[in-house]
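FAQ: What does the model actually see?

It sees only this:
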Amino acid sequence: MLPDQIIEPDTLRTDDGRVSVSIRIPWYRALPLSSVSQVGLDIDGHQVPNESIVWRTAHGERYALDELPPRHDKWWFVLDSAVLEGDLPPLAEADEHEVHVVIGLYIPYVPAADGAPLVLEQDRKTMKLEAAA
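And it is asked to produce this:
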């Protein structure tokens, strides 16, 4: 629904062998974190391993991706940024890097014959890599 706004510009960072990028919800209403069904992050075509990805909320809470499904009590609001952080993949020597994020969301309040519908969105942006301050 809002795929070109998922990746926040100029938020690609590295720190101690980890890479992070800020993302926004590709939906027009808040959703519980349990709605996040799929996450993918790659830099310059190199996938960040999903088992290394940590989801950091706007309030600083940190969850491994497999910890999101039971989080009906924590919400991702439309004005909040989440941060995806994971093991740093091999990066090309370049001034800018291509960041690709895929996110799948189940929409729990929209009725569908086969359960909640899945919204699968992706965004791709080119940005400079910044070291953490």
